[in-house]
Each structure stands twice: as C-alpha cells, then as structure tokens.
Amino acid sequence: MGHAHTHPHGHTPDHDHGHGGHHHPAPTDFGRAFVLAILLNTGFVATEFAFGLAANSTALIADAGHNLSDVLGLLLAWGAAWLARRTSTSRYTYGLRSSSILAALANAIFLLVACGGIAWEAVMRFTAPPAVAAGTVMAVAAVGIIINGFSAWLFFKGSKGDLNIRGAYLHMAADAAVSLGVVVTGALISFTHWFWLDPAISLAIVAVIVAGTWGLLRESLQLALSGVPPQLDHTAVARYLAEQPGVHSIHDLHIWGMSTTENALTAHLVMPEGHPGDAFLDRLTHTLEEEFGIHHATFQVEMSVLHQQCALHVARTGH
Amino acid sequence: MQGHFHLHDAGHHDHSHDDDHSANHSLVFRKGLPPEEARSASRKALRLALVLTLCFAGVEAVAGVMTGSLALLSDAGHMVTDSASLLLALLSAVFGNRPADARHSYGHGRTEVIAALVNSLIMLALILYIAVEAVARLLHPEPVNGAGVMVVAVLGLLVNVLAAWILSRGAHTLNSRAALLHVMGDLLGSVAAILAGAIIYATGWTAADPILSMGVCLLILRSTWHLLRQSLLVLMEGVPEHLDYYAIGRALAEVEGVVSVHDLHVWAMSSDHVALSAHLQVGTPEAWPRILAACQALLSRRFAIDHVTLQAEWPLARTADAAATVPVISPDQSA
Ligand SMILES: [Zn+2]
Ligand SMILES: [Zn+2]
Ligand SMILES: [Zn+2]
Ligand SMILES: [Zn+2]
Ligand SMILES: [Zn+2]
Ligand SMILES: [Zn+2]
C-alpha cells in the first residue's frame, strides 16, 4: 500500500480522508490589524510621554504607561495568533494552538488588574478631588478616542468568534470609553466645577469594563481548563452520536478547544454489530465539522459493552 | 504482520527522547501513590502550611506594630502574599478535584496547572523585583541594622523550614510543587538574610546583603523556570516530558494486526492524567476488538496511559481515489 510521505501533509482537495488533519477554515488574518493597532498605540505612547514631560503632567505620563501596557497586550495576542499557525511537533502534537487561549486569559487578567488600578485611583480622588487641568488632558483624551476607537474597529470583525481577537477588541474599546469619559467629564467640570464628577465617571466606566471582561475571563478560563467550548452543546453532540444507526450507546465523550477557534472531540461508540467502516466515520466527522464546528474528531468503536465509563471517572471514584 | 509508524523525518526513528527526562517529571502516578491519595495528601499539606503562614503573619504584624520595627512589618506583608499564593494553590486543588460535568468533560484537573502557572509567574516577578532592588542597593548602599535583620530572618527561617517540611511531604502535584518552590525560595532568602546580617554585624560590609540576595534569586530562578515550562507544557497540550512520542507510536504500530499509525496525540489532561488519541490502520474489521484490547493493555501497562481513543481504519477499502492515500505521518500538521 502506498504511504504518501508528503511533508508537510497538506490537505489536498482530493484527499478525502476527512479526519486526517486539523483542517479548519483559514482563520481570518488579523495580522494587518495587529500591526496597525500596535504602530498607532506605540506612536501615541511616545507623543503622550513627550507632552507629559514637556507639560510636567504626571497624569499624561501615567496614561502613557497604561498605553504601553496596551501595546504589550496587543503584542501578546498577536504573538499567540502567530504561534497558533505553527505546525505540530512531536512535543506539541496539536501545534501551539492553545497559546491563543492563554493569551486571551492573560489579556482578561491584565484588563481586570488595570480596572482595579483605575478604581483605586478614583476612590482616592473622591476624598480630595484635584482640579483637573482641562485643556491639555481633554485634547490628549480626544486623540485617545480616535486611536483606540480605530484600533477597536480593526478587531471588531473577529470579536464574535475568536476569543483572542475579542480580548484585543475589548481592551481597545475599553480604552476608547475611558478617553471618552475623560473628555465628557472635562467638559462637564469646566461648566459645573463639580470635581467629584471625575472619579464618579471613572468608577462607572470601570464597572462597564469589568462587566465586559468578565465573560472573556470566564470563557478563556473554561477553554484553558479543557472545558467544553461555550458555544458548543455537549448533550446535543452526545444525542447526535447516540442516534446514529448501529450505535448502541456512547460514552467517554470529550469536547475541548484546541485554540480559541478550533475544537476537538473524542468519543467511544458502542456498536455491537461490528465496526461500520470508514465511510461511516467520515460522515460523522464531516457532520460534526459542519454542524457543530468540531474540527478534529476521533472515534473509538467498541463491540462489547464491557467498559462503559471514562477512565478519568473510574480513577476519581475508584476508592 | 508488523506495522509501520511513520515519522515525518526518518532521522528520528531511533532517536530516543526519554532517557534524560525520567528523573524530573511531575506525574503523580510515577511517584508511587495513586492519584487520588496523592491529591488528598497535597491538599492536607497546603492547608497546614497556609494556617501556619497566616498565623505567623499575624504574630509578626502585632510584634511589628508593638516594637515599631519596619523590617518585621514588611516581612509580615511578605507572609501575607505567601498566604495568598498558598490559598490559590489550595483553592485550585479543591476545585480541581471536582468531577467532570457537561461543561468540563475532562473534569477540573487543569485548575491546578493554571494555579501553578500563575504562581510561577508571580515568582518570576518577585525574582525580578529583588534583583532590581539588589542592584540599586549595590549602587547606593544604605545602612543596614544587622541585628534587627537577623532576628526577623531567624523567625522567618523557622516558619519556612516548618512549612517546607509540611509541603515537601505532600508535593505530588505541579500545584503543590509550586507552593513548595515559593517556600523554599523564602527559606533560602532567610538563610541569606541571616548570613548577610552576621557579615554586616561583624565587618560592616553592607554589600553582602544585595550580593547574597542576588545569589538566592539565581538559585530559585532555575526551578521557577522549570516549573513554568512544565505547567505551560500541560496547558499547551504537549507530550509529557517522561513520555517519548515516537516510542509510543512505534509500540502501537508493532501490535499484531496494526498496519500503521497516524494522527497520534499524547497530552496531559491534568498534572496526573495522560490522554492519547490515534488512528490505526488495521487489516480486517474482524480483528478490531482484539487489536483494541491489545493496544489498550499495552498503553496502560507500558506507558501508564489509561485514557485512550483509538480510531480504526481500513487502508484496502479505500481504493476509490489513488490520491486519497493517507499521509502516514504524525503528528498531523496544518499548513
Ligand atoms: Zn485517519
Ligand atoms: Zn488599556
Ligand atoms: Zn470506551
Ligand atoms: Zn474520558
Ligand atoms: Zn514568599
Ligand atoms: Zn490530529
């Protein structure tokens, strides 16, 4: 028999061994979005820092520091998206896909820590609201709205499907919101001279960001724990598999995310009448990919009903 | 019939990976205790160490306020952060023990690995901070109260020795090893502080303090790095260090009736469970039940892998398309 030793094993269109590899719709390439956003934000950091030094404004320098951390967060997400495209090795047999999950998790944590910092600062200001130097701060914040808003827009398209991109999107959108808050408060304060408005609006913004980030944190944690990806229904998949002709029962069904965009499945099918053949498995694999978004499925066909339980489950309750 | 296990480059065929790794793996079942017992031992150790550290932090804080010693107060602060990292380890150990459910089909074992990752990152940050501080001290030496430092350091040493002893008896999971590493780092820090205090007291050479701190940093940097790599390996679904991917593939291919093996994945679901999935090309459908049983027995006995999904395929049945021959290389790669 012929073993095609083609390397790397590509997925040729006529290669109908559907489960031979991780074939997935080529994820939308956000490389350009990342480069643009990183360049814009780096430029912003430099200008903020220069103006901050010139105007001797600690607020501006502090904000430059924050934006520098944004650049790092973007680099992290970009690096993960790039690593995720690297091929598998004998050490990392799934490739480095799951780096996208860890990057999303890290970005969620960064964002929450930053929120904690802002909230702390705001609470401090309630006791002694400093007179806000409206002019320069508002001008810089206005530039911030444009840069962060534009960066957020670059990632908007991918923010629904890819958790890693959503992390970048959320952060940029949050920063645009903060800048907007600064401009609005600056304007309000110059009319009313209510200096407590500044910390109050900061706290409100923090609340909104935390609410948005919480979902990101939960979902990335679930993926990092090898949990069932949020958009997938474990019971529906189980029902689909159990309903197949010849399948007596299924057990040991596992579904997890290989990356923020690709899912994998393993399952044991009890088929007392014998192995149904390749065509059956190919059909299952294709339906799972098309209808459930599972890109990498492996099925163990068993004829006897002897072992019916996940080895993990047995290990945990074995004593 | 002898099967082939095809690798993506022939040079790897007799390349054995596992000889130098066998000593430093972290998997529980290789340490003699069954996973469940090892886990509960780890939890007990973490709980004891946490109570100990918290109590001591309280004592130090009270003593610090009463005597007005800044060294005592700041060490109390350190002990509080130690308690926090022990608490993280303990919580994740408890949480990680929860069984599988519809949203976590592998259970929650990875909680502990994430906690180990977070704790090793915190350690790295701490090492960086101490190193920067030490360099600053070298450049701008400050007067140090040698005797005061020594008193605090001796107290810290006692607590850390006790905590390290407790933890080392339960250090079976990646998670509790991370906690142990932190306490060991603190223990070495106390020893360095005692030495530095003595040297400063005797000779007045203040540079001893930062130099010794940097030495401790270097010591813990190595094990922190190792821990970080191990937890990342699990989270990135890498092949566990003590297992040889090619050896497993070859062993499967040598099972009677197996023609070839591809799409082989071996990864750790948590710090104590390894999973495997693979496609086996077999000669005839009739032989499959026997082959499956043989492969399961082999994997469990030789490699201690008990969570296995093997997909059978028949090469000869696929005559429809000559181009559709299976690329028999593993791991699969997506270009
Ligand atoms: Zn296959
Ligand atoms: Zn930001
Ligand atoms: Zn089974
Ligand atoms: Zn299972
Ligand atoms: Zn410590
Ligand atoms: Zn695969």
Automatic annotation (TrEMBL), chain A:
Feature: compositional bias, Basic residues: 1-10
Protein name from the UniProt record: Cobalt-zinc-cadmium efflux system protein
Alphabetical list of SUPFAM superfamilies matching this protein: Cation efflux protein cytoplasmic domain-like (SSF160240), Cation efflux protein transmembrane domain-like (SSF161111)
Keyword Membrane assigned: yes
Subcellular location: Membrane
Domain called Cation efflux protein transmembrane: residue spans: 35-222
Pfam families tied to this protein: Cation_efflux (PF01545), ZT_dimer (PF16916)
Superkingdom, taxonomy of origin: Bacteria
Transmembrane segments: 33-55, 96-120, 132-156, 168-189, 195-217
Domain (Cation efflux protein cytoplasmic): residue spans on this chain: 229-302
Membrane topology of this protein: Multi-pass membrane protein
Similarity remark: Belongs to the cation diffusion facilitator (CDF) transporter (TC 2.A.4) family. SLC30A subfamily.
Keywords per UniProt: Ion transport, Membrane, Transmembrane, Transmembrane helix, Transport, Zinc, Zinc transport
Region: Disordered, residue numbers: 1-24
Keyword Transmembrane: yes
From TrEMBL, chain B:
Main location as per UniProt: membrane
Annotated InterPro entries: Cation_efflux, Cation_efflux_CTD, Cation_efflux_CTD_sf, Cation_efflux_TM, Cation_efflux_TMD_sf, CDF/SLC30A
Keyword vocabulary terms for this entry: Ion transport, Membrane, Transmembrane, Transmembrane helix, Transport, Zinc, Zinc transport
Domain Cation efflux protein transmembrane residues, every copy: 47-236
Superkingdom assignment: Bacteria
SUPFAM superfamilies: Cation efflux protein cytoplasmic domain-like, Cation efflux protein transmembrane domain-like
Classification via Pfam families: Cation_efflux, ZT_dimer
Region (Disordered): 1-23
Membrane topology: Multi-pass membrane protein
Subcellular location: Membrane
Domain Cation efflux protein cytoplasmic: start-end pairs: 240-313
Membrane-spanning residues: 48-72, 84-101, 113-132, 144-167, 179-204
Stated name of the protein: Cobalt-zinc-cadmium efflux system protein
Protein source organism: Gulbenkiania mobilis
